[in-house]
């Protein structure tokens, strides 16, 4: 009897097992496989704080990241939209592997495994790292924290916008190029993941291009500059076509990042060129928008690692690259104390001074006003909504009416000078505006130790054309910071001594 019952139950038992496998176990297994494949969110990390600064993530790959192999393929797919070979032609810096080959991504680019794909996007170092050469035939030295004097941000943006609109931005062209470069895509990547990713990236970049259409209508920025706050207006969906024209064409130089602690302690300085914020951490989170982060996706832990490094990072000294005439510099020291110290600090490491970190009214400083006008009261109000609901909601942005007096640490590496980079050298800055170069070339990393600035009188370097900077173009004015109070009336000998002293900063 029991045997008959067991035989009768066994088909139902088998059916139950099959049903359980099909409806529970198999979907669970597939779910676990998919979760393992597409549910990861793992950035590439670096133990060294400097390596993290160069290649670590800020979280921008979540929203803005390009699939790694698409990033690699695009310069070969759309070379006509680049000024030369690869991302190097935009001024991005590739370090070498031990075998002498280039690293797979340039400095200022991070990588993160997210939703089943390795993604890359820019980080802080893209705008705050450059190279210096002591002569045209000498190798470049990478300097972290200095303004990215060779990086063409506008060209970088336009490359992706134009490439996305090109018919070759398709799986039919990109997948073969990935294979040619040795891309290790598996069957699922080749047949599903990357074809879908290519289509999504094309649509997203084209949608972004529509919002950033104003970029194409701007006058060229040139390397080392960015129109920071007009880009911010896009985040808030400002009607860019209807802005007051005086707010446009407002590119400014990338700043340096050294000695941030001294800009915070013992007293907070007014930050950004126009002094529109007084909190280093809030300024950093604002800058992180430029690396693709958003309030839900920002990687605060890894940004804090960058913050910790820049707090006490110091610039290399001029004397590490070129000799300094100490006797002549000593003659320049009292001239500096008389004309410069109150606004710019006692030295390159001592920021004490009555007006250091404070805004000087435009009516007094007299420099080009476009960058100041581009940051409007309306934008400041909108920025106060950023990170709403978070403990670090923005509360310190404000509209000012001038430009902030900056400390001069690493001054020699911050050429060209003034907020818009309109004066090529320190020696030129000590001349009245009428005697400053009306046009010069930007983007060279060969240094002129006499005038204290990058070589700017040659139209090409290393076989590549340099950017001709025209000071008559709107936003590029080289006037201001002149007159007796600013040292432009000093004798030639006094100016030479002052410049020599400034080499010690």
UniProtKB/TrEMBL annotation:
<dbReference type="InterPro" id="IPR009056">
    <property type="entry name" value="Cyt_c-like_dom"/>
</dbReference>
<dbReference type="GO" id="GO:0020037">
    <property type="term" value="F:heme binding"/>
</dbReference>
<dbReference type="InterPro" id="IPR051395">
    <property type="entry name" value="Cytochrome_c_Peroxidase/MauG"/>
</dbReference>
<keyword id="KW-0349">Heme</keyword>
<keyword id="KW-0472">Membrane</keyword>
<feature type="transmembrane region" description="Helical">
    <location>
        <begin position="16"/>
        <end position="34"/>
    </location>
</feature>
<protein>
    <submittedName>
        <fullName>C-type cytochrome</fullName>
    </submittedName>
</protein>
<dbReference type="GO" id="GO:0004130">
    <property type="term" value="F:cytochrome-c peroxidase activity"/>
</dbReference>
<keyword id="KW-0479">Metal-binding</keyword>
<dbReference type="GO" id="GO:0009055">
    <property type="term" value="F:electron transfer activity"/>
</dbReference>
<feature type="domain" description="Cytochrome c">
    <location>
        <begin position="327"/>
        <end position="505"/>
    </location>
</feature>
<keyword id="KW-1133">Transmembrane helix</keyword>
<keyword id="KW-0812">Transmembrane</keyword>
<dbReference type="GO" id="GO:0046872">
    <property type="term" value="F:metal ion binding"/>
</dbReference>
<dbReference type="Pfam" id="PF21419">
    <property type="entry name" value="RoxA-like_Cyt-c"/>
</dbReference>
<dbReference type="InterPro" id="IPR036909">
    <property type="entry name" value="Cyt_c-like_dom_sf"/>
</dbReference>
<keyword id="KW-0408">Iron</keyword>
């Amino acid at each position: 009897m029991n045997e008959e019952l067991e035989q009768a139950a066994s088909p139902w038992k088998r059916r139950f097992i099959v049903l359980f496998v099909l409806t529970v176990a198999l979907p669970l297994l597939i779910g676990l496989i998919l979760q393992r494949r597409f549910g990861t969110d793992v950035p590439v990390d670096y133990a060294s704080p400097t390596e993290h600064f160069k290649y670590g993530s800020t979280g921008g790959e979540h929203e803005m990241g390009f699939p790694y192999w698409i990033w690699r393929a695009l310069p070969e797919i759309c070379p006509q939209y680049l000024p030369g070979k690869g991302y190097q032609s935009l001024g991005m810096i590739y370090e070498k592997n031990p075998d002498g080959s280039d690293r797979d991504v340039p400095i200022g680019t991070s990588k993160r495994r997210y939703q089943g794909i390795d993604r890359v996007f820019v980080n802080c170092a893209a705008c705050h790292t450059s190279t210096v050469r002591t002569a045209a035939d000498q190798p470049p030295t990478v300097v972290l924290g200095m303004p990215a004097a060779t990086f063409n941000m506008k060209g970088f943006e336009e490359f992706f916008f134009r490439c996305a609109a090109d018919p070759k931005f398709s799986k039919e062209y990109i997948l073969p190029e990935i294979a040619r470069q040795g891309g290790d895509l598996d069957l699922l990547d080749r047949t599903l993941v990357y074809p879908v990713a290519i289509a999504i990236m094309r649509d997203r970049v084209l949608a972004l291009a529509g919002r950033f259409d104003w970029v194409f209508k701007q006058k060229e920025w040139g390397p080392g500059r960015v129109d920071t706050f007009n880009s911010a207006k896009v985040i808030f969906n400002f009607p860019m076509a209807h802005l007051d024209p005086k707010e446009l064409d407002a590119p400014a130089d990338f700043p340096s990042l050294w000695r941030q602690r001294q800009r915070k302690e013992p007293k907070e300085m007014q930050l950004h060129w126009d002094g529109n914020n007084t909190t280093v951490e809030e300024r950093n989170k604002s800058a992180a928008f430029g690396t693709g982060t958003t309030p839900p996706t920002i990687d605060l832990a890894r940004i804090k690692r960058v913050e910790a490094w820049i707090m006490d990072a110091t610039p290399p000294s001029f004397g590490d690259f070129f000799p300094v005439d100490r006797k002549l510099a000593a003659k320049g020291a009292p001239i500096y104390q008389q004309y410069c110290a109150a606004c710019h600090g006692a030295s390159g490491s001592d920021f004490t001074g009555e007006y250091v970190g404070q805004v000087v009214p435009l009516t007094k400083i007299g420099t080009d006003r476009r960058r100041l006008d581009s940051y409007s009261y309306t934008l400041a109000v909108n920025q106060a909504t950023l990170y709403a609901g978070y403990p670090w909601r923005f509360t310190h942005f404000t509209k000012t009416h001038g430009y902030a007096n900056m400390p001069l640490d690493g001054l020699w590496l911050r050429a060209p000078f003034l907020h818009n980079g309109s004066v090529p050298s320190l020696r030129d800055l000590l001349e009245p505006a009428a005697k400053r170069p009306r046009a010069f070339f930007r983007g060279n990393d060969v240094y002129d130790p006499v005038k204290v600035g990058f070589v700017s009188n040659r139209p090409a370097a290393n076989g590549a054309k340099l950017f001709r900077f025209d000071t008559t173009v709107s936003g590029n004015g080289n006037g201001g910071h002149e007159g007796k109070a600013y040292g432009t009336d000093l004798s030639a000998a006094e100016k030479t001594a002052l410049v020599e002293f400034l080499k010690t900063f």
